[in-house]
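Changelog-adjacent note: as of this version, every example in the card shows the full chain rather than a window. The one below runs 461 residues end to end.
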Amino acid sequence: MSPATADVLVCGAGICGISSAYHLAVKQGIGRVILVDERAPMSFTSDKSTECYRNWWPGPGDTMLRFMNRSIDLLEELALESHNYFNLNRRGYVFLTADPRRAEAYERSAAELSRLGVGPLRVHRGKFCDPVYTPSPAEGFLNLPTGADLVLDPALIQRTFPFVSQRAVAMLHIRRCGWLSAQQLGTYLLAQAAASNVELIRGRVAGVEVKGGRVRSAIIETPSGSQRIHTDVFVVAAGPFAKQCASMVGVDLPVYNELHAKVAIQDYLGVVPYGTPLMLWDDPVLLQWNEDERNELVGSQNTHWLLEAFPPGVHFRPEGKGQNGFLLGLWTYDVKAQEPVSDPSFDPYYPEVILRGLIHMIPGLSAYAGRMRKPRVDGGYYCKTRENRPLVGPLPVGGAFVFGAVSGFGIMAGMAGGELLAAHVAGATMPDYANDFLLSRYQDPDYQRLLVELEAVSGQL
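Full-length structure tokens:
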């Protein structure tokens, strides 16, 4: 029997690997692509996100903005092609503040992003000559506003979202944002890829043979045994395990992992209406506790931190409707670099912290304080570079490539990143942002100067 061969072998069947395989086979016409993962597709990190997308990315420069706009373009094309199989919407993101100084910062940052190409900025100050503010529909994504609406009229905020705190003095509604079903997106891409001769193998890449400075083959371990697959192209798309995967070809990727959690809180009282956008409270807060709770917390060294000030950024999006609806809440208040494990554990206080943080923005959620139906907590790893930009392109070993370090934005970046990865492999025309995602960028003096202005939380909610 002749040995197994592949034109390209992709390690990892999360959104990065699946999108890479799709673009390699379906869009670039590469003949035989093998996708390898010991887990079910989209099951380790890609399905643990809030499944959101946005083109709202700060500078310096417009690299990430153009990259995300391209990815959203591709998502919308897929949604039209598939009759919106993965339920793409464009409800937007809504940032809220009770601080007038923050409102001024909104106007400055939104004006700058508008100049970079995010779309027009419409300011609503409560005057007769103001532009009309149009709320986002619950479903659909076509023929809707782009850019952002800055609402500086508290009365308009209350008319639009009467469940929001009356302390809110400003609202920034960014428009080319929303969410989708990541699992269904992955399913659709896999089906299209399979029709173009992509094979999914449930197994583990145990080693990669490199000879003469280039990839020659890979050893795959499966429940039925191990096999060698001869290939000249190996793609590292292993999510949180990208560093370990790249080490098999002798490359040390400059990435690390943070564990981020989300909580699903059942909104059985219907406090948040169906159709609400993603919402974020942009002010620091002190969590609200009653006297008995406070006395209990202050008496323990393990819980006194719950009485301290928390940073801005608690946010949620709704999922489902009616008594079966949930709020998916997140808050990046305490993360650290760590090695990924298969079954991570989460802070037992996380659901209460999220709920009590959200109460500052949605006072009606106080009805659930101490009375939550059992919340569901899960999460995944953000695999990151130090400036929170992805790695896409060739590695310094012939035939080795990477698509990874997509932090918490893998679902939204997946399509543009897969397209870019496939273009590198196929030798196709590159978009003008391609060089900014290469591993070799760290040897570029111009990029080294840019790193001074970037940090690991750049663009992160």
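Structural remarks: Residues 256-380 form one domain.
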